[in-house]
Amino acid sequence: MLGQRFLGTYPQMEWVRMTGHEIPFQHAMLPTGNGTVEASPVLLAQSLNDRAMATLDIVRDGDGFRVTDHRCGLMGMKPVKVTGSAFAGFDRDEYTTLAERPDRLLFIYLDVFWRYASTNQMLGTNHAHYIPAEQVRDVVLHTFHALVSMSIQHLIYEMGKNLLNRFPQMSEVSFAAQNRLWDTASVSESNSRIKAYTDPRPGYGSLGLTLHRDEL
Hints:
Layout: H1 2-9, E1 15-21, E2 25-31, E3 37-46, E4 51-61, E5 64-77, E6 80-87, E7 101-116, H2 119-123, H3 133-146, H4 152-166, E8 170-179, E9 183-187, E10 195-198, E11 205-212
Antiparallel strand pairs: 1-4, 2-3, 4-5, 5-7, 6-7, 7-8, 8-11, 9-10
């Protein structure tokens, strides 16, 4: 609606790109005085968790307007899995120094982007084919929870397959991931499961992947 209004107001404007980012807020949880807490009806705090976004390119089309390109996304995910991830089965040569690990803690930064097969599906007023970012999040996190991945590449590939299978109206999905696996600072001598971690040293491993439906 905003893009159409811009083009309708300024005839010298050839096309417009509109990008919006969600700014999520959460109700503050406050003590009631009787040992419980409840959500404040008037006080909110900005969430530092993931946020939805969308970008549309809009041009004139006769007496109307047409979307020529678009991209939807969920940015700023920071999931960590404390067990059930591996780093194994990769190609080795004389320069390989990394040891295989059958189980590891895995912490990643993750952005997910997708496109619809048809912009009519995206813009339909009945939302019959709308892809909610909340459901994208659910599929991504469930995949991370259930899969024993051999690498981050393996993990985001399975996430992409599950998203394309879940949403037939999604024509492609892409990922931008960073390996933020913490460095182990200390391990308890009495219990090897008790560990202290530090932030990883930069630079961070970065991975990108795009899956198209016709490539599955």
